[in-house]
Amino acid sequence: MSEVEIFARAFELWVSNTIISDTPLLQTKEDYKNEFCYKIFGSFMEEVIYYFNNLFGTGEIQAVANKPVQLTLF
User: Fold this and answer.
1) Which secondary structure element, helix H or strand E, spans residue 47, and what is its range?
2) How far is CA 12 from CA 26, 28, 56, 70, in A?
3) Distance, CA of 37 to CA of 16 (rounded, Å)
4) 19 Cβ neighbours under 8 A, 6+ residues apart
5) Of 12, 17, 35, 49, which residue is 20 to 30 A from 59 by alpha carbon distance?
6) Is the pTM of this model over 0.70?
7) Are 41 and 35 in contact (CB under 8 A)?
């Protein structure tokens, strides 16, 4: 895995642990526990959570509404 992919998967784990959402972009908790590309974070998951909490705020679980948003580029 490249550094970018490792960072992205770590961020995905942080999101799945700290934000409650029904987005189809997140996998199930079982997938995160069983898939190799996520299992490698198991021994330092606390550091991953700590890192992203420092970037984005507290470690409290947050609920996010999954509602469509119109984006425009220009």
Assistant:
1) helix 45-56
2) 7, 11, 13, 23
3) 15
4) 61, 62, 63, 64
5) 35
6) no
7) no
In whole angstroms, give the CA distance from residue 5 to residue 39.
14
57/39: higher pLDDT:
39
C-alpha span between 73 and 53 (Å, rounded):
30
Residue with tokens 């992919």: 5
Closest C-alpha to 15, from 71, 66, 44, 53: 53
What is the number of alpha carbons within 13 Å of residue 34 lying toward its C-beta?
Answer: 5
> At 34, which amino acid appears?
N
Give the pLDDT score at 69. Answer: 57
Q: Token pair 């609920």 is at which residue?
A: 63
